[in-house]
Amino acid sequence: MPQYQPYQRFTEADRDKIAGRLRDAFADGRLDQPEFSTRLDQLYTVQTYGELEPLVRDLPPVRTYATPEVVKDTKPAPEPGSFPERKPDNHPHHGRRAGAIGGFTGVVMINVVIWFVIGLGNGGHWPHFWPVWLLIPWAIIALGGLGRRR
Question: Greatest CA span in the chain, whole angstroms?
Fold first, then answer.
């Protein structure tokens, strides 16, 4: 790593980093609006590292990345080669099949209600029971999963 040289010119990337530190300090309430504006104006007039240093001397060091508490794993990692025990309700297809049957049941029921309302509208003369064409696939889906349950 090169040694700090106060007379050495800095890059635009360095200027952007310092501007970011000033913005963070302003957002945190460490700098008021006039102080922030003054330092930002000075930032765009200076050219060397030595001139940058007074702009951030009284600010806390640069924040580094820290893992948010929400995503930190509270359980220790398992030993290499060991596998955690799987709970019986973790079967990936279990919820999907129940959701498919439930959603399709709603579609079938809506069609049966429509058929019934048409029959009432015709004075009790119901047409051919056309929702049967929806009941057949519904029954196949519902009964098809019976043999696979654990």
Answer: 98
